[in-house]
Structures are given as structure tokens and as C-alpha cells.
Amino acid sequence: MPTDRDHGPPDQKRLRLLKVASPPRLGDGPGLGTLSRPASGLEVLACRSEIPLVFSPNLGQLHDWWTVVSTSTAPNLAGQDNVSIAGMYAAWMGVGASSGALSAATVLIVLGACAWAVWRGSRLASPDYLDAALLLFVMPLLSPQGWDYVLLMATPAVMLLFDRLDEFPPAVRGILFASLAVAGLSVWDVLGREPYRALKMSRVITVGALFEVALVIHLRARRAA
């Protein structure tokens, strides 16, 4: 016959779950230093039946988060503040299958290049700085919801490029300075509404960022960092 213990409120069920699932402790038995008895089969089944009561709120929050991400990504790709690779193709070609395929291919190329750079750095004495700087740099480019202000994470990589300017020919330095100037000086208050939007929608900032990523990987190829 079921008892009140089987139909207690959820809080009491969670408390019993924690008691049953907790590891045995010394001194719980009749004598000092003895172990408490292991859980019986019925208690294990009770734990399994009450696990959803413990984790269901977290699962609900994860489901809500995924709903927000999946429904807001496509409209945000064509926004002027999106600097991701997916946003670059969406601005040029519109949100669709063609831009999605090109985005996926470019992301795979960037990931492969980064993986190669990290692998090559494993043979160097101090590869950590470039590895960390490179991974921080590509995060806003790989994420479909990468916003322009997140490119501040590229600061360690930019400092490395400035420190190794002698590794690049003058023409490459000029392109590097131009890409950094466009990214750093594109201010709405200075350019105005329409020029600012035109500059952002051209995705020249994303192109410049990809160029800088290539320079960082070039340093690793030359084992300069």
C-alpha cells in the first residue's frame, strides 16, 4: 500500500534523492568507522524516477535558450553590426542556401588553418601566446552572432602583428594598417548614418579581419611566433 512517503511534495523528493545518492560516510553505522549500507534496488529506482524533478528546470531553460538562438540568428545575419563570416555572405548574397554553403566552407577553411597553426606550434618552445591570440580572434568571425565590438578580443593578435612587422613586406604592412584604420575609425558620429551603414554592410571590416588572421597564421608558418 502506498504511504505518505511515496507521495510527498517535490522538495521532499529532492531531499530524499540527495540522501540516497550521497556517498557513504564513516561513522554512520552502529560502530565508529563503519560504512553506511549501500542503496537498495528500490531506492535506485526511486532515484531514477525522481531525476527529472531535479533537472527539468535546467532543461527548460536550455530549450528556451535554443529557441531564442535559432529564431534570431537568421534576421541578425544581415544586420550592419554583424562581423561574422556568415554575416559577410548574407550581406553580399542575402540569407539563403548559397550564402550558407559558402559560409560553412569558409568556416571549415578557417578552422582547418587554425588547427594546423596550433599543431605546428606544438613543435615550438613557446607557442601559447599566438595560439590563444588566434583562437580569441576567430571567435566573433566563426559565430553567426559575432558583433563588431567583440573584435576587441583580437587585441592580443594585433599586438603580435605590430611586434613582428619586420616579417612582412611593405605592401602587406600597408594593407594591415588600412584594415586596422577602417575597423578602428568607423565611428557613426564621424561618418554619419548612411556612410556608416554603407561601410558596415560592405563587410570590409570582416574581410580585413580575415586578412589579419591570415597574417597571424603566416607568422606561425615562418615560426616567427
Shape verdict: globular
Number of domains: 2
Strand tally: 0
Intertermini distance: 73 Å
Strand residues, percent: under 5%
Give the C-alpha Rg: 27 Å
The major beta sheet can be summarized as: none
Query: Low-confidence stretches at least 5 residues in length (pLDDT < 50)?
Result: 17-21, 24-35
Number of helices: 10
The sequence of SSEs as H and E is HHHHHHHHHH
Average pLDDT confidence is 79
Can you characterise this structure?
With 225 residues, the protein is an all-alpha fold. The protein has 2 domains: 4-74, no CATH class; 78-221, no CATH class. Helix content is 68%, strand content 0%. It contains 10 helices and no strands. It has helices at residues 10-21, 41-77, 85-93, 97-121, 128-142, 155-163, 170-185, 188-191, 193-201, 204-221. Helix 1 packs across helix 2 (41-77) and helix 7 (170-185) crosses helix 10. The longest helix has 37 residues, at 41-77. It is globular. Mean pLDDT is 79; it is low at 17-21 and 24-35.
Short descriptors:
225 residues; mainly alpha
Compact overview of the structure:
The protein is mostly helical and 225 residues long. The protein has helices spanning 10-21, 41-77, 85-93, 97-121, 128-142, 155-163, 170-185, 188-191, 193-201, 204-221.
Task: Give the secondary structure arrangement, pairings included.
Elements lengths: L9 H12 L19 H37 L7 H9 L3 H25 L6 H15 L12 H9 L6 H16 L2 H4 L1 H9 L2 H18 L4
Helix pairs in contact: 1-2, 3-4, 4-5, 5-6, 5-10, 6-10, 7-10
